[in-house]
Amino acid sequence: MKHRWILITIVAILALQGCIQTIAVRSMSGIFQNGIATYMEESDLQLARESLGSTLKLIETLIKTDPNNKDLLVYAAQGYQAYGLAFCEDIDDERARTFYLRGKEYGLRALTQNKHFVQGLDGTLEQFRVGVLTFSKNDVPAIFWTAFNWGSYINITRSDVTALADIPKVLELISFVLHHDSAYYYGAAYVFLGTIEATTPKALGGNPDKAKEYFEKALALNNGTFLLTHVYYAKSYAVQEQNKALFDSLLSIVETTPLDIAPNIRLPNAVAKEKAKRLRERESDFFEEG
Q: Are 165 and 186 members of one domain?
């Protein structure tokens, strides 16, 4: 009997420790929210890269303590998408794919806490759509970052037919975001749609006119201060339409706009300037001579 009570006491202590750890982890959500805001204000890309790498590993450590913490899962999805886009995509496709897949999986871990979504995840497009419609506006961040990772992976994996087959599901997620909060993350859902429409061949359903419309909607929502809008407008639509004048104009805006035009998004705008520089260096590859 004595041994039994000792065992019960030990189990109780361990359970209490687990609860305390979980409470401690959850109390950090506000700190991470403030941390993201501070991170977005950084303009030094090297410092940002080093900081994000460390932060992501910390977030993953906390997720091991509290595996179903939706806030942490969404932070991880956002962080891996940012790392892939900002620091890998232009120089190492394989690393970018790895990080986009990690981000997608963390996003899906948050979304699959909704049992109705789980039922449609691997089903038909209609079943998937029905599952998505069971979410609310509060789920926009989780849906957006899941879709952005998923779509970013597809966009740099165009030779993979299996990946391309998932585009309709990604579009369902993006449509949800536009319906509930089209201005979320500076209208980036429209940037995403514009890129998809512009880079998909017309024979496969791509529509340059729609692409232009989406980019213009994004610019209207963010007042032209979210410079990645101009970068992807140039990289996708202007290049596909062989509109060199537009390409030059859009990149010139990125190059001449001061980072302090929007102090709260210095980092994505610094990333946009670096991407614009890379596009300039490859300009002759994009446009036919004459």
A: no
Residues 187, 126, single domain; the answer is: no
Backbone angles phi, psi at 214, to 5 degrees: -65, -45
Same domain, 46 and 70: yes
Regarding whether 162 and 100 lie in a shared domain, the answer is yes
pLDDT tens for 177-209 read 999 999 999 999 999 999 999 988 888 788 999
Count each helix (H run) and each strand (E run) in the chain, helices first.
17, 0
Say what the pTM is: 0.88
Task: Of 206, 214, 140, 130, give the one whose Cα is nearest residue 174.
Answer: 140
Residue 272 structure tokens: 């946009």
Angle between helices 266-281 and 29-40 (to 10 degrees): 40
b or e along 76-91 (b: 16 or more beta carbons within 10 Å of the residue's beta carbon)?
bbbbbbbbbbbbbbbe
Q: Tokens 């993006």 appear where?
A: 174
Expressed as residue numbers, the domain containing 279 is: 182-290
CA dihedral over 76, 81, 84, 86, signed as positive or negative: negative
209 DSSP assignment: H
CB burial of 21-38 (b: ≥16 within 10 Å; e: otherwise) equals: ebeebeebbeebeeeeee
Predicted confidence (pLDDT) per residue in 164-181, tens digit: 889 999 999 999 999 999
Domain count, the chain: 2
Query: Shortest CA distance to 172 belongs to which of 221, 123, 218, 236?
Result: 123
Q: Does one domain contain both 69 and 129?
A: yes
Alpha-carbon span 223 to 203, nearest angstrom: 33
Which residues 6+ apart lie within 8 Å of 155 measured at CB?
195, 196, 199
Q: Are residues 110 and 200 in the same domain?
A: no
